[in-house]
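tool_call: predict_structure(chain=1)
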Amino acid sequence: MRVSIVGTGYVGLVTGACLAEAGHDVICVDTNLERVTMVNEAKPPFHEPGLPELLASVSLIGTLDLEMAVRESDLTMIAVGTPFDGTQIDLSYVESVSAQIGMALKEKDGYHVVVVKSTVVPGTTEKLVLPLLEKHSGKRAGAGFGVGMNPEFLSEGSALRDARRPDRIVLGGIDPRTLGAMAALYEPWHETPVLMVSPAAAEMIKYASNALQAMLISFANEMANLAATVEGVDIVEVERGLHLSELIRDAPVVSFLKSGCGFGGSCFPKDLAALAAFGAAQGVPMDIASAVLSVNRSQPARLVSLLGDVLGKRVAVLGISFKPGTDDIRESPAIDIISLLLERGAEVVAYDPIAVAPDVPHASTLDDSLDGADAVVLVTAWPEFAAVPEKLAGRSIPVADGRRLWSPEAFVDYRALGRTLP
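tool_result:
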């Protein structure tokens, strides 16, 4: 199938590369010339394991010309950003692209399918995108073109695996013809369960999925905060007990039932906030979603508090990205942790194998970050940091483990969320 994807960000480029790998002809559209150039040079504009090699092995076309991309394809995916402005998600990019696609459809003969890939609140595809397509194309949805919604379930750091071997494919379409075209797109994944629903249901599935995962993380963190007040209880042991339950044993969801210094990234914080705002607008208080965010916001301060007085002390912050395997620092707990340390008078030096935080001194190596440190805070569980206990052997400085990566016995002064202070 000939596919055009508008947006060469994380979702758009990974999706496009994997569709091309599956045998489709893919055109990637963006308004950013630098990104388009990088696509044509098979260079990803962000870090994702395996993506450079995949781009080098497939044929992708990058272009600024959206009209041409629509004209030369059978199906167009909208994969632009939907940032949260504090009150609601910003749909301006979706609106603009929908209008442009509509104008392109006006000049195109034949049936074309437009699929929303961006994360949008329920009702957006049918109540916003569809009317804009009709208005600017002069055609009627269901007759001149199809409209669908196909949420993504990609995790940064494992996106290629998630796209190549998805656990499910959710297709939301306005009619059987649209659903048929979307099903044909995913024919190479014929062994994956496919759910066909309405566009609004597909939109809701995406939000519900992210909310569930975020809720499990905040549940684990709330239990950890309680465990820290009880002598003789370590949340790591509690989590082991939970993980042995046959309800979740050996299930991937277990990875979310692990306490730490909070979740970040471009999805969970934004999507939970958007879901809570959407619920309020619908007259349905989203108490659980709001509580999940509240617990998450408290974790960075809890981790910093483990160090006590940091005035004038050199503190090494290990990890800037919100999780290992990515250079994404959006909503990373590290940003708040660094800010709190600076507010309390600490001298901060950060180290991350890939990511960089703005306006913060960075060490070029792990050894350099630990050299002369009066305290250490672990934020991101990069595999490289497993070597820290050996590097700090014998040094009596407080070590705050925000991801429970290390054994308490490996340090002279070990501190962590989910256990009482020594």
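agent: The first helix runs from residue 10 to 21. Proceeding to next step.
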